[in-house]
């Protein structure tokens, strides 16, 4: 297919027909140098239009956006974000000079490091699309609302983090348009140019990584033995295994720490807090507002292990049991390190009897989505081993090749963290 050729051209293109990488990098640095970005931690008690509601959940007076509610799972009481709406992570793409380009937004979010990151063309909650904030309409929203069926390249509902959101999905939407001259704050970029930003810490936001994870490896010819039904069988078995029923509950008032003026959630499975911030960002739909935001100080590493076995590469994924997932689990990183003492090599020894050449291939530092997470940086760590013996999978750990992971992603069972690693893996291992 020509699409595959155009995508491969995009992956290999650093200085494109529309923009040189140095020009894009200069624009990125210029936007981040502007002193138009002010954030202040004010605690949850000083937030305007946010408060404990009649059910003692922490919510907005309009009933929109999101709320922090109670959650009970594994006999533990904690909190979780309920955002009962589907947002849009939308990318406009065009083919220019036989090369796919994506319309990238240099979007500023309150929790970002630095202030602006490479983001989808459109990144908007349903509340923002309906202008519940009272501001302007998100840029290019009409392109997605009025897109024709034959312009839609990707349209997938994919899950958000299972410890932070309750049953939360975003629509990852990629549409094809003819080239047009973009507004300020947007630039056409090739896939190769986006990947090159991986050497710049916290430059590619998680929403862009999520949407682009659905486009990787399109040139690969599937193995004749590949059977999608095998993946469906594995998923169905995992659904049965993880069908525990966590329950959402009213009231997070008991978690209000008056000394720090935060909602503090601390249990053996998870630790995080929610504070309030005031924000001033010029150029947004609304220039000044305040909101709650997650502080996830313990999150440290996403680890993905690649295994070379009999000349083929596979990836060791883990079934992550998290209460916010609709089916109780998602496949994701080999390990998520939340600041505890952990050795990936010790874990390997319990799964693989004989292996060699264990090494770290790449470490990429990126942050979580700055609209909900404050300065949340995570190392994406890519390890590799060679394994000569036949592999016996154990428990929640399973080996998949790239084609199988792609199917898992398309079916909506690859976690947000897993999609982030998947996006970079196409660059790291190729």
**Judging from the principal axes of the Cα atoms, what is the shape?**
globular
Q: Helical segment tally? A: 10
Topology, number of strands: 24
Percent of residues in beta strands: 35-45%
Average predicted confidence as pLDDT: 92
> Termini, distance in Å?
21 Å
Give a quick account of the main beta sheet: strands, pairing sense, barrel closure. 7 strands, mixed
Q: What's the helical proportion of residues? A: 10-25%
Class from secondary-structure proportions: alpha+beta
Low-confidence stretches: 218-224
CA gyration radius, whole angstroms:
22 Å
Structure description:
The protein has 430 residues and is of the alpha+beta class. The chain has helices at 2-11, 21-33, 126-129, 141-145, 191-196, 206-212, 228-241, 344-351, 402-410, 416-428, and strands at 37-41, 50-52, 58-60, 67-73, 76-82, 87-96, 99-108, 116-119, 122-124, 152-159, 169-176, 186-189, 247-249, 256-257, 262-267, 270-281, 288-295, 301-309, 312-321, 329-332, 335-337, 355-367, 377-387, 397-400. Strands 6, 7, 8, 9, 10, 11 and 12 form a 7-stranded mixed sheet that branches. Strands 18, 19, 20, 21, 22, 23 and 24 form a 7-stranded mixed sheet that branches. The protein is globular and about 60 Å long.
């Amino acid at each position: 297919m020509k699409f595959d050729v155009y995508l491969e051209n995009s992956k290999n293109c650093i200085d494109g027909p529309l923009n040189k990488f140095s020009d894009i990098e200069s624009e990125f640095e210029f936007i981040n140098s502007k002193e138009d970005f002010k954030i202040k931690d004010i605690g949850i008690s000083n937030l305007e239009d946010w408060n404990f509601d009649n059910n003692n959940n922490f919510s907005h007076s309009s009933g929109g956006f999101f709320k922090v509610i109670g959650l009970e799972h594994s006999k533990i009481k904690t909190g979780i974000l309920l955002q009962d709406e589907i947002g849009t992570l939308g990318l406009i793409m065009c083919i220019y000079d036989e090369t796919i380009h994506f319309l990238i937004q240099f979007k500023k979010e309150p929790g970002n490091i630095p202030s602006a990151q490479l983001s989808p063309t459109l990144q908007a909650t349903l509340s923002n699309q309906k202008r519940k904030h009272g501001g302007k309409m998100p840029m290019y929203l009409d392109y997605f609302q009025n897109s024709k069926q034959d312009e839609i390249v990707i349209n997938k509902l994919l899950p958000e983090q299972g410890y932070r959101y309750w049953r939360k999905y975003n629509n990852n939407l990629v549409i094809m348009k003819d080239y047009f001259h973009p507004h300020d704050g947007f630039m056409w970029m090739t896939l190769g140019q986006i990947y090159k930003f991986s050497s710049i810490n916290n430059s590619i936001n998680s929403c862009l990584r999520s949407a682009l994870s659905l486009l990787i490896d399109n040139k690969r010819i599937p193995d004749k033995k590949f059977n999608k039904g095998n993946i469906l069988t594995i998923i169905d078995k995992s659904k049965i295994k993880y069908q525990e029923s966590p329950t959402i509950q009213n009231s997070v008032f008991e978690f209000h720490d008056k000394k720090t003026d935060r909602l503090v959630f601390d249990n053996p499975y998870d630790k995080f807090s929610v504070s309030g911030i005031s924000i001033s960002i010029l150029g947004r739909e609304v220039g000044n507002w305040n909101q709650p935001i997650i502080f996830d100080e313990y999150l440290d590493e996403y680890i993905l292990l690649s295994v070379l076995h009999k000349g083929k590469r596979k990836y060791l994924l883990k079934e992550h049991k998290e209460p916010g997932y609709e089916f109780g689990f998602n496949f994701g990183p080999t390990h998520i390190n939340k600041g505890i003492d952990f050795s990936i090599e010790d874990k390997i020894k319990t799964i693989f009897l004989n292996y060699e050449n264990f090494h770290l291939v790449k470490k990429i530092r990126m942050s979580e989505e700055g609209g909900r997470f404050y300065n949340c940086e995570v190392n994406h760590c890519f390890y590799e081993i060679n394994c000569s013996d036949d592999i016996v999978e154990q428990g929640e750990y399973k080996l998949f090749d790239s084609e199988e992971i792609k199917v898992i992603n398309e079916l909506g069972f690859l976690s947000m963290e897993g999609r982030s690693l998947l996006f970079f893996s196409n660059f790291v291992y190729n």
